[in-house]
Amino acid sequence: MAFGIALGPVSFDLASPESIRDKAHKWLGQITSVSSADLKLYFLVGEPSQADLKPVYQSALNILKKASSSAEVFTETDAAGLSLRLAKQVAEHEANAAHA
To answer: How confident is the model at residue 1, as a pLDDT?
Structure first.
């Protein structure tokens, strides 16, 4: 089965807890709207620079992670892991295309 891949950067480096929650829920709606499509979503998420916003950031991450089984969330510290995952998928796709 063919499917598409979408990579989305999401920054939660915002000024208030409300703006972080609002952005997480906005993304939840967008993820839900495409969840029936043959689409694998990857999010690279930036955390807030203000330490007092870390708890609401964790909550926002949980919202994204629970949004859909077709979405995977990576933090900035996991960027290398994401790039390896995507490189592996590209290599598998190319190998499959060569055998088709």
So the answer is: 41
The pLDDT value given to residue 3: 64
Contact residues for 42 (Cβ-Cβ < 8 A; gap 6+): 5, 6, 7, 8, 71, 72, 74, 82, 85, 86
Backbone angles phi, psi at 5, to 5 degrees: -125, 135
Residues across the chain: 100
Residue 8 has phi, psi (to 5 degrees) of: -125, 125
Given a cut of 50, the residues of the chain with pLDDT beneath it are 1-2
The span from the CA of 80 to the CA of 90, in Å, is: 15
- The partner residues of 41 in beta bridges, in order of sequence, read 6, 71
- The domains of the chain, with CATH numbers, are 4-94 (3.40.50)
Which tokens in the block code for residue 14? 């915002």
Structure tokens at 72: 């995977």
Please tell me the predicted confidence (pLDDT) of residue 5.
Answer: 81
Report DSSP state, residue 1.
Answer: -
